[in-house]
Design goal:
Number of strands: 8
CATH class of the domain at 153-256: Mainly Beta
Largest sheet: 8 strands, antiparallel
Strand content: 15-25%
Helix content: 40-55%
Radius of gyration: 45 Å
Order of helices and strands: HHHHHHHEEEEEEEE
Shape: rod-shaped
Strand order of the largest sheet: 5-4-7-8-1-2-3-6
Length: 257
């Protein structure tokens, strides 16, 4: 028999772990006395198992493992076959169980960390969205304040007509830049197929200054079309998208410059 084939067959590992029958054990021991290579292989495998079995896990890991299973000395002893070197089998089993539990704990910790990271990322995205929304709101507010406080912007109050006496809006017109802004204080909410339209009265004629929507925020300014040389402004209720000429019977607001 080729001695290297004998060593490679796995029988020496089974011998060290105490898995062989008495006859097979006697055969291995006879081979170890006859062949130094066999004896050296036995000692090598024993030394390797002893080295692994003697390594202590970190205290934190050890406590966590002990909390997962009742892993006592008595439990290990019941696994030991009553044979020489059989304690190595028990040590190997203990090492295998400990390694399996460590892997489970490690995977659970990785999963927990991934969930925590995902939660942090989600919160950061929400914070970014909120910040962007607030920044946009502050920007719009700053623009509105600039319009309201601009010394060249003339404020014109548009008051309710017979259609809606309590309606009110403020209009800001810069005669140099021709820019026009409207801030609706109160107007009846139109139907879906209707829209309010602003008109500038220029030399006695109504000039389209654009349509505008009703906003929930009464403080919001809406920029209209530029106007030159107006003597007055008025608001009528028109079909959605606006009309080429005002419907005089549906005039809601008017104010002189």
């Amino acid at each position: 028999m080729n001695i290297q084939d004998y060593i490679s067959s796995g029988i020496i590992e089974s011998y060290v772990l105490g898995l062989l029958s008495e006859k097979e054990r006697a055969e291995v021991e006879a081979m170890s006395r006859k062949h130094a290579e066999v004896l050296a292989e036995i000692e090598l495998i024993e030394g390797t198992l002893m080295s692994h079995a003697s390594k202590n896990p970190p205290s934190a890991l050890k406590q966590k493992i002990q909390s997962e299973i009742d892993f006592t000395k008595n439990t290990v002893l019941t696994l030991q076959p009553n044979k020489n070197r059989s304690w190595l089998l028990a040590a190997s089993i203990a090492l295998l169980i400990g390694s399996s539990i460590y892997n489970v704990i490690l995977l659970n910790n990785i999963k927990d960390n991934e969930e925590q990271i995902a939660s942090i990322v989600l919160k950061n995205e929400q914070y970014a969205t909120d910040f962007e929304s607030q920044s946009k709101s502050y920007g719009e507010m700053a623009q509105e304040m600039a319009v309201l406080m601009h010394p060249e912007n003339k404020k014109i109050m548009l008051k309710g007509m017979e259609m809606s006496p309590t309606s009110l809006a403020a209009l800001y017109w810069n005669q140099n830049t021709k820019d026009v802004y409207i801030n609706v204080n109160s107007l009846p909410m139109p139907s879906d197929d209707k829209q309010y339209q602003l008109w500038a009265i220029v030399d006695g004629k109504a000039v389209d200054a654009g349509v505008f929507d009703m906003k929930s925020d009464s403080a919001s300014l809406q920029k209209m079309k530029t106007i030159v040389g107006a003597q007055a402004f008025a608001v009528t209720l028109e079909k959605k998208g606006g009309s080429s000429s005002p419907t005089m019977s549906a005039m809601y607001l008017m104010g002189n410059v």
